[in-house]
Amino acid sequence: MSTLLSQLLSDSDQDTLWIADENSKALLKAGLQFHGILLSNRWDIVHAAEQFGIPAHFSDFDLTTLDRSISRIVYPVSKEKAAVHHVINTAAECLQGNGELILIGGKNSGIKTYAQKAAQRFGRGKNLQKHGTDYASHNHLNSSATLGTLLDDSNYRTLRKLDSLNGLFSKPGLFGWNKIDVGSAQLAQHFSEHLPKTPFTALDLGCGFGYLSVQLAQLAPEAHIIATDNNAAALLACQNNFDSLGIKGEVIAGDAGSQVASASSDVVICNPPFHQGFQVEGDLTDRFLTEAARTLSAGGLALFVVNEFIPLARKAERLFREVTLLEKAKGFCVFRLAK
């Protein structure tokens, strides 16, 4: 897909919008020819784009905040259906007259189905072109055509309180948005026996909608909690949960804790991701471990949970003086790491 995306981006002007999720990250490198603007729900992608002088916006795929007209949108489809439907719905409303939405993806991305749905939304016939192993769906806006029915995007823009999350707020756009992760639930069960005496500062690395932060705050209400995530939807949900529950702390954007000061935390809690878009990214665990070690104060401890196939003990040995397996169950391993 990178070759096709690169070709489409090189043929761009200032009115082109590149909607970039994590699947686009590999293209942000020296030599990229792109003359438009970038919008992403990933903080690291926006930060990387700005390093190359590309105007970039960080939001939860909110096209309505752009401060210029858009005549062409290039979008490698995301892994989550609700996000793709949301972009298709909004693009049809935000493009200027005779504008074009180009969806691209591999055969396993759902691109053929999305091409059909986009055509219906734009009130035009399907125009799907094959480029090697990838596909591009071209959808032109016609002022004389009537837009089709909105696609079901699970009310993408709406934060909602969910019984399945014990009354916490969440929304589509973040992984596992409507359920409590089994591994996170196991990790939280170990908090009471390993947390230091309050007051202390805790860092929730990859906070998601803030489940681990909430569990920690219930046990240690005087703790100051820093929650950080790379995903815009996660930050919106987590901040809402902090506000509604009166949790002391802050919610900040960053790549695996990159914006958190060194040696600033007494405790780190983390359920690190191991998927990057449609791919499994092997070094994600390493990055989260490295940031945990960097942000911990002397004598601090980290509590991690990972899938049992992740060799966390081996990865953590070079960074921590003590690596202790606390539990192995239900396909997950819980570790205590001492700095």
From TrEMBL:
Please state every residue range assigned to the domain named Methyltransferase small: 168-335
Report if keyword Transferase is assigned.
yes
Read off the InterPro entries from this record: DNA_methylase_N6_adenine_CS, RsmC/RlmG, SAM-dependent_MTases_sf, Small_mtfrase_dom
The record's keywords, sorted A to Z, are: Cytoplasm, Methyltransferase, rRNA processing, S-adenosyl-L-methionine, Transferase
Q: Does the keyword Cytoplasm apply?
A: yes
Name the SUPFAM superfamilies on file. Answer: S-adenosyl-L-methionine-dependent methyltransferases
What does the record list as GO biological process? methylation; rRNA processing
- Gene Ontology MF term list: N-methyltransferase activity; nucleic acid binding; S-adenosylmethionine-dependent methyltransferase activity
Q: Which domain of life is it from?
A: Bacteria
Q: Mind telling me what this protein is named?
A: rRNA methyltransferase
**Native source species:** Microbulbifer agarilyticus
Phylogenetic classification of the source organism: Bacteria, Pseudomonadati, Pseudomonadota, Gammaproteobacteria, Cellvibrionales
